[in-house]
Amino acid sequence: MTSIHRFKIASIDGKEIDFAAFSGKKIMVVNVASECGYTPQYAQLQELSTAFAEQLVIVGCPSNDFGGQEPGAEASIAQFCQVRYGVTFPLSAKVNINSLPVHPLYHWLTQASENGVMDCPVVWNFQKFLLDQNGQLTHAFSSGTSPLDEALLDAISV
The domain spanning residue 90 has which CATH number? Predict the structure, then answer.
């Protein structure tokens, strides 16, 4: 079984996010959008990132695939997240999740044949994938699940 640690993704600032750098920490990958009803979850994600900084890395992946709710360019997305929600966790460049070509990271996250755990199609913005310290997928939480939901917090704390 492969782990998320084999993936790299372009960051929103034109650099690179290397998931191998997060080995030993849990990782939460969240597809995000600036014009969604769930956009206020950015504040909760930042709170979670701060509270669990020693054991969890959150990576937000902007995508325009769900209702066209992330139409902006990377610079405007980054500014929005920083100014409006004080986001300090890593953000990727915009990615395709359901539209072609699907980003390899999301192909891996959503296909049991790839991640070895579960099929879990992304159906809307702010779906959360939780991976353990070894980079193995352990949980997927729906868009409507608050980042501060008790079940999610329990999964991080285990």
Answer: 3.40.30.10
Q: How confident is the model at residue 17 (pLDDT cuts 50, 70, 90)?
A: very high
* pTM recorded for the entire structure: 0.98
Query: Which positions are annotated as active-site residues?
Result: 36
Predicted pLDDT of residue 105: 98
Which pLDDT does position 130 carry in this prediction?
98
User: How far is the C-alpha of 98 from the C-alpha of 61, rounded, in Å?
Assistant: 13
Neighbours of 121 (CB within 10 A): 12
In eight-state DSSP terms, residue 71 is: -
Q: Is the dihedral of CA 111, 149, 66, 70 positive or negative?
A: negative
Range of the domain at 111: 4-157
Query: What is the pLDDT of the chain when averaged over all its residues?
Result: 97
- Sort strands 8-10 and 16-18 into parallel, antiparallel or unpaired: antiparallel
